[in-house]
Design a protein that fits this description.
heterodimer, A: about 190 residues, alpha/beta, five-stranded mixed beta sheet, two-stranded parallel ribbon, 5 helices, extended, B: about 375 residues, alpha+beta, three-stranded antiparallel beta sheet, 15 helices, globular
Chain lengths: ~190, ~375
């Protein structure tokens, strides 16, 4: 079990990002970002290396795009202000305020599915993340590779409404059997 | 499917086990499809005491969530305390004084022994032997008294704080703990004579409910379940946290994978926990039990943090996502028994119902921890 080799193999399947994180401050060794269609390849690779599945969960990033936009606007405003001040200090005519850049509609916020794997022999926690649009959260199931993922995926479907395509039995596990709500979504109101 | 799988000629029927059944230790329902006395299919139905602790975590500050951790695994509450405070300490960079680390280890290991003693009693009760439960509760009572004097509670402990522990020990704790270790060591041979060497128990457990190492891996089983299948995996050794590396202890591993192996792992672990407590009492340093200057309002830096600890039932992991505010953005609780129970459906196919109950008991289920 070689961490560098695993990192290389994950990069080879086209993962968007494979980051080696500082274990002491983070608690996991590899942080991997993949597209939903690369998930099966990445998980199969870990299965072949002898990893066991720790957990599957989700994160709702509602409002992330708006926050990014706000940050970008604040940064642009600060830059313009600094420019105007520099011009005033040099005794020049302050430049006319730039028209606000046309940024278009906000991109859609994402739901993230997070998979944790670990190894019995060596300490190497690998976190795989995949993002999907909030309006159509779909990701292929990995329960045919790790049967243990079956329950974890059902739980994640309960809490976030992420649809695990191909799951053999995607019915509520912890919530009531007729539950049609997803309590961990940030816009959930009881 | 086993040799006892549904055949065309045989009729099957559905049997509900639980949610109120003494052998399920709480409110767990198992929907069994039976062919006579044999199990064709078993589907555990969860969620009867689901309380959505993860959502509660998003609605209160980092410190306000602390008491929740003692209410999931009520038998090893201090390990849950430990996992949560450790992940927050990792996220905020708080360092813990040495004496507090020792007290954490001593109390968490005492709690582990009490959890194993209760499991021991309840497991034998499942198998039809009543009296060992009374002996085990007698011993466990001493631990509860010791922990009550330190933590102030007897079951749902909330003793650890970010940066230390809530309270220093009193004068009676160290001699009381030493006396208890001596007492339990004298009692263990009796347990082995009374129970382990009992021919009925051996017949009920040996070669019953085999779980292979590969099955453990595929389902993510940890703790005594995987150690009973020959996998040497203990978070205290594998991913050392707190001051566990300073102690000399062994990880009991049995490789038959049957219910007897899991029984033996836990019985041996009691002795190993006693060894850790003994060494910690010998080395217990003086000093403060709380870090100085822990901010009242915690705001961990943005990002993901994970921390795992070894509870009596396996690896408990907490993943927190912080957005830099005073409440967690996301709090994931990875409970060991959830994964351990998920293999039950596959493991009990083709077994006799009483054997399946022995297998279920050997998994050491704590339902509030599974449902969260």
């Amino acid at each position: 079990m070689n961490r560098a080799a695993i990192k290389q193999k994950l990069a080879a399947i086209g993962a968007e990002a494979v980051i080696e994180s500082d274990y002491a401050s983070k608690g996991f060794a590899l942080d991997v970002q993949v597209l939903p269609e690369q998930l099966i390849a990445a998980v199969s690779l870990l299965d072949a290396e002898g990893f066991f599945i720790e957990a599957v969960t989700g994160v709702d990033w509602l409002g992330e795009q708006a926050a990014l936009r706000k940050d970008a606007e604040a940064k642009a405003a600060a830059e313009a202000k600094a420019k105007a001040e520099a011009a005033a200090a040099a005794g020049e005519e302050p430049p006319p305020p730039a028209a606000p850049a046309e940024l278009g509609d906000l991109p859609e916020d994402a739901l993230e599915a997070v998979y944790d794997f670990n190894h019995y022999d060596a300490l190497c926690r690998v976190t795989i993340r995949t993002r999907m649009p909030r309006s159509a959260p779909e990701v292929p199931t990995i329960s045919q590779i790790y049967p243990g993922a079956n329950w974890h995926e059902r739980e994640t479907h309960d809490f976030f409404g992420i649809k695990f395509v191909g799951h053999p039995y995607l019915v509520p596990l912890l919530l009531p059997e007729d539950a049609d709500f997803h309590p961990l979504l940030k816009d959930f109101r009881p | 499917m086993s040799a006892f799988a549904k055949s065309e000629a045989n009729e099957t029927f559905v049997l509900n086990l639980g949610p109120q059944h003494p052998a399920t230790h709480g409110v767990l329902r198992v929907k069994l499809t039976m062919d006579g006395e044999y199990i064709v299919e078993a589907e555990p139905v969860l969620g009867y005491i689901h309380r959505m602790h993860e959502k509660m975590g998003e609605n209160r500050t980092w410190a306000q969530f602390l008491p929740n951790t003692g209410r999931m695994d009520y038998l090893h509450a201090l390990a849950y305390n430990h996992g949560y405070v450790s992940v927050v300490e990792r996220a905020t960079g708080i360092t813990v004084p040495e004496r507090a680390e020792y007290l954490r280890v001593i109390t968490a290991e005492l709690n582990r022994v009490s959890s194993h003693l209760l499991w021991f009693g309840a497991f034998i009760l499942d198998l039809g032997g009543f009296s060992p439960l009374l002996y085990a509760f007698d011993d466990r009572e001493h631990i509860l008294d010791l922990l009550e004097s330190v933590t102030g509670s007897r079951l749902t402990y909330c003793y650890f704080r970010f940066g230390g522990v809530y309270n220093d020990i009193d004068d009676n704790f160290v001699p009381g703990t030493r006396a208890f270790i001596k007492r339990l060591r004298e009692r263990m041979p009796m347990y082995h004579n009374l129970v382990t060497k009992n021919i009925i128990l051996m017949t009920r457990l040996k070669e019953v409910g085999p779980i292979s190492a590969e099955m453990c891996r595929k389902y993510g089983a940890t703790g005594p379940v995987c150690r009973g299948s020959g996998i040497n995996f203990d978070v205290r050794k594998h991913e050392p946290y707190s001051i566990y590396p300073e102690f000399d202890f062994e990880v009991p591993v049995y490789d038959q994978g049957d219910s007897m192996s899991r029984y033996m792992v836990r019985m041996d672990e009691i002795e190993q926990s006693l060894r850790i407590i003994e060494q910690a009492l010998d080395k217990l340093p003086e000093g403060p039990v709380m870090a100085e200057k822990v901010p009242k309002i915690l705001k961990p830096a943005k990002g993901d943090y994970y921390h795992a600890v070894e509870t009596a039932r396996g690896s408990f992991g907490v993943r927190v996502v912080s957005d830099g505010s005073n409440t967690p953005y996301r709090l994931k609780l990875r409970s060991p028994t959830f994964s351990n129970l998920s293999l039950f459906g596959e493991a009990c196919q083709g077994m006799l119902l009483p054997d399946a109950l022995a297998l279920m008991g050997s998994l050491d289920l704590v339902i509030p921890e599974i449902d969260r």
